Amino acid sequence: MGHETVRVEQLEAGAIWRVWLATPRANLVDMDKTERLTRLFAEAAGEPRVKAIVIEGEGTSFSYGASVQEHLPGQYEKMIPTFHRLFHGMLEAAIPTVAAVRGQCLGGGLELAAFCNRVIATPDAKLGQPEILLGVFAPVASVFLTERIGRGPAEELCLSGRSVGAVEAHAMGLVDAIADEPGEAALAWVREFLLPRSASSLRLAVRALRAGMAGRFARDLDAVERLYLDELMETADAREGLAAFLDKREPVWSDR
Question: Quick check: pTM over 0.85?
Fold first, then answer.
């Protein structure tokens, strides 16, 4: 099972799905990959033997984030809801997930990794939510990062747009473990702790662990999505920031 932008390998008689974002070097989480990942989680949810999904990026980086091109007028109206459906699908599937992060893990890529139950990163990994540098914000991170790392660190990352190294990310709880080969470390953790367990019990445990968050996430993400679509993208500075990035120049803010 596989295709050119998302590749899947089934291990341990289908109990583990190893999933690669397969467009190095950037591994952009564009609409194509997003829709494929959403379908993949729906398919895995229908396979009762699946105990874990490991997600990693081919090449030297996990993902540089979403496609900036798809943030432009005429595309973002479809892209944002499509991206958000992936996270609703991950919650619905309730399959344990582990992100194996190498290199850059930015923007939508970090939103995807952080949403996993466990994150393992290389010592040289760089993680960040740089959307504010482009005059926009990250809806999923705005809603979910506070759940994972607490309000202070989440707000600092989203407002500063800076990237943090693996050691700092580990200290704030954004990364759960550091390993030279995060994919192999993820598989080793899954084989030791999840493979001996009941798949149905694991899924119910994920649902239980995320029960309170799931309701808040659905409600808050809907509100933040409307803020993004109806207000943010009507501002001159959101359009300027995205255009400046694509033009490879510094943005000139009008503050409106």
Answer: yes
